[in-house]
Amino acid sequence: MPIIKGMPKLNFRPDRRAVMISSAGIALAALSGPATRPFLRSSHPGRPTAVPATARNAAGMPQTALDAARFSVEPKLLRRALAALDQHSVSVKARDRMAIVDFTAPSSDPRLHFLDVVSGKASRLLVAHGSGSDPGHTGFLERFSNALGSNASSEGAFLTGDYYTGKHGRSQRLVGLDPTNNNALSRAIVIHSAWYANDEMIPVHGKLGRSQGCFAVGENKLSDVFSFLGEGRMVFAARA
């Protein structure tokens, strides 16, 4: 899989903490291909390769994927994301990869998690939140909003849409799938790059700058993000 450059790679070791995924495990069963199946990459980011549901283990997912999720994402948030993926299965056709944004963490932490549920590989990077969610610019998200003009981040499941070039350069539209984020298109909540989301912001300022509610990533990370997600995949954003 295309591990995103500059991201910390996760070293998976046996963990005594069991991740209780119950219904979430069943939800991910629809995602799962064989644990040894090679990573499938579309030659066109806008045409993602779907992975058929075939082999699964007792947990309802490849064991490598379970390990990756356990070490990458807080278990409660992972369960919510998997439940959302199952809930929106009609809209989310490409279910081999997903992204989870843990807005419990500060902007100084790499809180945008990328999970390949087929190979079990995971990586993460920095992502900014909206100024309306952090009016004092503390680096922590304080609240969500779906309101027009709020400049805040929204929570819920998003579907990655098409690409365009706008005021922030190359960008990708997002469709909000929940009542908490269904204004994403009208608010122009997108994925784009920004100087204030570059890694260099952390040693200098201790936090990233803020967006107007968009998922802003570092300028040298955008191509890899687009390549990983493509169109038709889910981004789930919430607090644990």
Overview of this protein structure:
- The chain is of the alpha+beta class and 240 residues long.
- It has a single domain (22-238), classed as L,D-transpeptidase catalytic domain-like.
- 20% of the residues lie in helices and 19% in strands.
- It has six helices and eight strands, in the order H-H-H-E-E-E-E-E-H-E-H-E-H-E.
- Strands 3-2-1-8-4-5-6-7 form an eight-stranded mixed beta sheet.
- Helix 5 links the parallel strand 6 and strand 7 (215-217).
- Helix 1 packs across helix 3 (75-87).
- The longest helix has 13 residues, at 75-87.
- It is globular, with a radius of gyration of 17 Å.
- It starts with 21 loop residues before the first helix and ends with a strand.
- Mean pLDDT is 79; it is low at 7-60.
- The CATH topology label is L,D-transpeptidase catalytic domain-like
What order do the helices and strands follow? Answer: HHHEEEEEHEHEHE
Structural class: alpha+beta
Shape: globular
Unreliable stretches, pLDDT < 50, 5 or more residues?
Answer: 7-60
* Extended strand count: 8
Tally of structural domains: 1
Q: What fraction, in percent, of the residue positions are helical?
A: 10-25%
What is the CATH first-level class name? Mainly Beta
